[in-house]
Amino acid sequence: MSGASPTTSDAPILEVSDLTTQFHTRAGVVKAVDGVSFSLHKGEIIGLVGESGSGKSVTGFSLIGLVDPPGRVVSGSVKLDGQELVGLSPAALRKVRGARIAMVFQDPMMTLNPVLTIGQQMQLALNAHEKLSKSAARARSTDALTRVGIPDAEARLDAYPHQFSGGMRQRVAIAIALLHGTRVIVADEPTTALDVSIQAQILSEMRELAREMGTALVWISHDLSTVSALADRILVMYAGRIVEEGPTAQVLRAPRHPYTAGLLRSLPAMAEPGTDLEQIPGTTPSLLNLPQGCPFRPRCDRATDLCSEAPPMTPETGRGYRCHHPLLDGTPA
Amino acid sequence: MSSFLLKRLLQGVVIMAAMSVIVFAGVYAIGNPLDVLIPPEATQDVRERTIARFGLDKSLVEQYFLFISNLLKGDLGLSYIYNEPVLSLIGNRLPATLELVLTAVLGATLIGVPLGIYAGYKPHGFAARAIMAISILGFSVPTFWVGLILILTFAVSLGWLPSGGRGETVEFLGIEWSVLTLNGWSHLVLPAINLALFKLAIMVRLARAGTREVMLSDTVKFARAAGLSEMTILSRHVLKLISIPIVTVFGLELASTLAFAVVTETIFSWPGVGKLIIDSIKNLDRPVMVAYLILTAGLFVTINLCVDIAYALLDPRLRRGRAE
Ligand SMILES: Nc1ncnc2c1ncn2[C@@H]1O[C@H](COP(=O)(O)OP(=O)(O)O)[C@@H](O)[C@H]1O
Ligand code: SF4
Ligand SMILES: [Mg+2]
Known about the structure:
Helix content of chain B: over 70%
Distance between the termini of chain A: 24 Å
Bound molecules: adenosine-5'-diphosphate, iron/sulfur cluster, magnesium ion
Low-confidence stretches of chain A: 1-8
Strand content of chain A: 15-25%
Order of helices and strands of chain A: EEEHEEHEHHHHHEHEHEEHHEE
Shape of chain A: globular
Strand order of the largest sheet of chain A: 6-7-8-3-9-10-12-11
Structural class of chain A: alpha/beta
Number of helices of chain A: 11
Distance between the termini of chain B: 19 Å
Oligomer: heterodimer
Number of helices of chain B: 13
Largest interface: A-B, 37 and 25 residues
Number of strands of chain A: 12
Largest sheet of chain A: 8 strands, mixed
Helix content of chain A: 25-40%
Radius of gyration of chain B: 24 Å
Strand order of the largest sheet of chain B: 1-2
Shape of chain B: globular
Number of strands of chain B: 2
Mean pLDDT of chain A: 87
């Protein structure tokens, strides 16, 4: 499962195995993340895709140890540069967050504080991990803003979030995440709230930045086309599990899992010209009471009796999928 | 910013003009001041001279414009009862009210806001529940009753604190203050607590509600993701985000308490303006009533203006920003 991407080196910077996060609610146990495993190498970009409600955000929060109660990482392991993060004390986790692994969110209008200047917010983020003088903090912040493509960065430090456009605001959030030379960034739908043209701009800039700085990215999106433009590898998530993974080109060209194939058929750019876009029938199941066996079964046209047994992950070289009846090369998708 | 201020200032002037008409007409409609001013056995001559001296022979409209032109000169007339300029009458009692009210409202804010933030931060803890129980008490128990209980407990039973008066005062800037002496504080503390309890309850609720909301926001999530400590998040992000409703209520409470501290001043025989206005209503002392009501309106307008300025300082979105 490793070594597939040309830019990766051997030891993964982030190694996630069998991560399981549950919400214990009055209605029952929500298995939001159910045994997720993957590894991320220096400078690599992983795209985590799936319909809304499939557990992508909870996966992201589990990685940085910020799952909202009543949620909890119940088992599994998250190793950052060899250090185990699951089970770390809140104080120790705080030292890791922002310094070695950071996260950016969907809407920077909601994440940046509207009543503090960009400079003040960057200084708070800097001081969380380093004692810096005000002028040193300004210099570092200016550098970070310049790096993400904000013109006239020094002057913009004194501006407030509402004085930036949506795309610029998200660049600011990314600059904050990069302040400490952070090596892993989890980006949860960071361009979903933006115009398509600005999305494309930010995607290509992020790609370049990751190459340049060796920062590894976990890019979360419900939109397969966004991710396919950016990621080296794709993880497809369904009902809290990774159902397919592999290098982007392979997954797009030859999906193994019927769910991935369905996602692809619903993309305008992927459809055969002249044919109708197909939607996957049915909706994402509630993670509260999943059906026995393969969770995709009620929506799957390839399902058989065998599918009432949960399919295991089938590893191929650099590929993996969870399906009893995969679409193998030559099978019509 | 300056055009915004100018607009607010103009609004204030209009409100004050309207208030002066309403107050003047309203007070004029109450009773006949001649019964107070002129003893029944007075001669016709004395009657007429007194009526002329106070301008009561003129029409209501003439009296109003006379009042306004005097007001603009800083002359609010003579009290019917004390035969003293109204302004100095009120001015002499204002510092007592001012120090009592400021102590109460500031104290309520400085204690209530941190308690509320804590209760909003850990809403399910025992301490938070205790804080909220006390705040419900502060809301529901009448002020006069709390005042009496305070006097009975600390002045009568325990004898720790005096039950009334201002105690020793010290002159500062030509005005007598109790807050500058220890003895003055011993007199101030009970009435201030009495006045503060309700405001404390409000501040706790406001800060708690605001904190609960902000703690769930993406702003806090993002700050946590950047590794900020919980203390920094509360003191730098949350406090600033919840400050606007707190400043609003602070201003309103300050104004309304300055105007209506009557109950507490009466219970603790605190020689402030509250007692003066009650007496003036009883005695139909029109100039004092009118001046008091106009000054109160002016106070509200001024404090609202200050609150608006504070908004603009606290929330950059209300200032005119350079748009991108
Ligand atoms: N605070 C919570 N309480 C209970 N369940 C939650 C909570 N947050 C998320 N979940 C559950 O976790 C599932 C996955 O959510 P999420 O990770 O946000 O999905 P995605 O990001 O893929 O759209 C949701 O279906 C929801 O049921
Ligand atoms: S295991 Fe069966 S139900 Fe699940 S995706 Fe494969 S074919 Fe469909
Ligand atoms: Mg999400």
